Amino acid sequence: MAQHSPIPVGTVRTSEIVAALSRALDVTEGLPAGHAARTCYLALRLAERIGVASAAAGDVFYGALLKDLGCSSNAALLVQLFGADDIELKRREALTERDHRSMAMLTLRTLAASHEPLPLRVGRLISLARGGADRHRIEQLRCERGADVARRAGFDGSVAEAIFSVHEHWDGLGFPQGRKGLAIPLTSRIVATCAAVDVFRENRGDEAAIAMLRARSGTRYDPAIVEELLAACDAGLLRDLAGIDLYGELARLEPPGSSYLALPDDVDRIANAFADVIDTKSPFTAEHSKRVGHIASQMAQQLSMSDSDVRDVRWSGLLHDIGKLGVPNTILDKAAALDEEEFAVIRRHPALSLRILSPVAIFGRVAEIAACHHERLDGKGYFRGLTGESLGLSARVVAVADVYEALTAVRPYRKAMAPEAALHVIERSTGDHLAAEAVTALRDVL
């Protein structure tokens, strides 16, 4: 396992952490990597063009990066209704108009591509045709959850409000409240328009993005904002976006009033917020990441690890499963045994956790620890097949905490184990799978 020197907390900007973690939200939505960051860049350039005040520009900055904070909350419900890959369905929805005909065609194509028995697909179609309330609940849940997580992460109420209203439409036919026109916050109007431009340009090219803007002006999006954004595109905005160091530009454009260094409590709040996003993806993982973080940090203290190591173990526990946001709920919540192809998807999630966390300077060690939570001492784990010689004490601690929490929680394929029964299973795995010193620490803290 790669070694990283600890980075002092308070030397990394909050925006750097949020921008990096926003990649996890892109994955959950089935959107190209960097979507939230590109949306943020476009929104900041547009806000500057239309003269948005400095304080409100900060809301645009964080509202754009965190616009999809509620994205995991409706994943299980989408699978329940459609029986389809939630990530792929969300990607298609982002490219689909919200009128009844377009959504009906999306539903038909989704069900037609399903491998479920025909009677079940027909039943789903009938249920969806009658289920306007379910569709509204999916959208409302996402908006409410996103705003709530933003508040708990420590962001201003105006950022939470921007997230809450980002799916409202200028003509009043959006969600969650059917707000219309200027009743929709300006930040939401800016972010929504720029997000759509990025989705279309990444999937279909610049010309399709421009055509989409013109078609949706006055219905889905504020016509004044569309006019300014089209003018900016004529002046080369999309060309600029294609050739920049994206995250470097975001650091340069970050509004001065929103730029501050992340102190330990700030990082804790952000890590806990993203743990909520992770755990909400499946009804079977409620509180999993928080419990792993809590148990692992207690174990680290029991083992007399340094304060910085305890801190990194806690953050690793909170964020170890962030890569699972890229796993469809058709796999996460499957009650039967996974087939070989499905298990291959599961095996990739620690690698995705590593990729998401690594760009954050203070998460260098956290990323490596999180990436190792399914490794085994005997080298038979995944995703790199590391052996005990390569796994440090922090990684061994998080691995044991993860196994214990999973065993004592309900899963789609089994009931929860009692603590003593789970400990017995863990102790039988000591030496080849799990480290003895970590198992002893677990028993000591329970």
- By CATH reckoning, the class of the largest domain would read Mainly Alpha
End-to-end CA span: 28 Å
Tally of extended strands?
A: 0
Q: Helical segment tally?
A: 24
Strand content: under 5%
Tell me the domain tally.
3
User: Helix and strand succession?
Assistant: HHHHHHHHHHHHHHHHHHHHHHHH
Rg result: 23 Å
What would CATH call the architecture of the largest domain?
A: Orthogonal Bundle
Q: Helix fraction? A: 55-70%
- What do the pLDDT scores average to? 92
Look up the CATH topology of the largest domain.
Hypothetical protein af1432
Q: Could you state the CATH homologous superfamily of the largest domain?
A: Hypothetical protein af1432
Which structural category do the helix and sheet elements fall into?
Answer: mainly alpha
Short structural description:
With 446 residues, the chain is mostly helical. It has 24 helices and no strands.
How would you sum up this structure, described in words?
The protein has 3 domains: 31-69 and 153-258, Hypothetical protein af1432 (Orthogonal Bundle); 75-138, no CATH class; 264-445, Hypothetical protein af1432 (Orthogonal Bundle), CATH 1.10.3210.10. Helix content is 63%, strand content 0%. It has helices spanning 14-28, 35-50, 54-65, 75-82, 86-94, 100-112, 118-130, 132-152, 157-164, 186-204, 206-216, 223-234, 237-242, 246-253, 264-280, 288-302, 307-319, 329-332, 340-347, 349-357, 364-371, 393-407, 419-428, 436-445. With 446 residues, it is an all-alpha fold. The protein contains 24 helices and no strands. α8 (132-152) packs antiparallel against α9 (157-164) and α17 (307-319) crosses α21 (364-371). The chain starts with 13 loop residues before the first helix and ends with a helix.
